[in-house]
Amino acid sequence: MMTQMEPQSLNTPKTSTEEVALSTPINSRVSPWLAPLAYFLGCRIVLPLHFGKIAISGQENLPITGPVILAPTHRSRWDAVVVPAVTGRPVTGRDLTFMVSANEASGLQGWFVRRLGGFPVNTDRPSISTLRHGVEVLLQQEMLVIFPEGNIFRDGAVHPLKPGLARLAVSAETTHSGLGVQVVPIGLKYSQSYPQWGTDVSICIGSPLKVADYNLGSVKQSAKQLTIDLENALKTLI
């Protein structure tokens, strides 16, 4: 799972490929029968059997209502199982919506991803429709997961964040006054770079950043400061 996105300008000339992307509807529906099964298997069987010690801190920082962007560091494909288990339905009573890379939304894996709240984004050339859908998720008072580093990094360090998360959050808040978007930093750490059986995992959930506090005169300036603060928060958590 990944993603970050940098929205294109509405005034940028569109190629035929971009026009198709803009007209393609994006869905991120959670299957009412598959989600409960996935949570049960993940929380009760897969994670306890695969991992050694699972240390969780900061779950009291998770908002149980309102629009939320969860912003985890990205260390392994296991993140896609760990994050919902410690922040989703079993803890907050809320299902999660994920931005995922296009290749993760294909094949058998893609079948599951799309039915568990995932929707694809072209990380090289994200479409305006992806941005609009992200805003729509927040308008529906849902929890959206975006990995702000953009890719998996296994060295344990926080890498420079992509600007897309902050731009989406600020755009949603400024165009819908009083929306109340919050960004929750989450630090993930595994005892092995490639988690094997018995690997320990640590999940640290930080205090939410209130997007309404970032009103610096322009979306670009506000998003830049939000990105800086989010990156610093992630560094503190790991």
User: Regions with pLDDT < 50 over 5+ consecutive residues?
Assistant: 1-24
In terms of quaternary structure, the protein is single chain
What is the overall silhouette? globular
Strand content is: 15-25%
Biggest sheet character: 8 strands, mixed
Rg, rounded, reads 17 Å
Q: Give the beta-strand count.
A: 8
What integer is the average pLDDT? 85
Percent of residues in helical segments? 25-40%
Description:
With 238 residues, this protein is an alpha/beta fold. It is built from eight helices and eight strands, in the order ααββααβαβαβαβββα. Strands 1, 2, 3, 4, 5, 6, 7 and 8 form an eight-stranded mixed sheet that branches. α6 crosses α7. The longest helix is centred in the C-terminal third of the chain and has 19 residues. The protein is globular, with a radius of gyration of 17 Å. The N terminus is likely disordered.
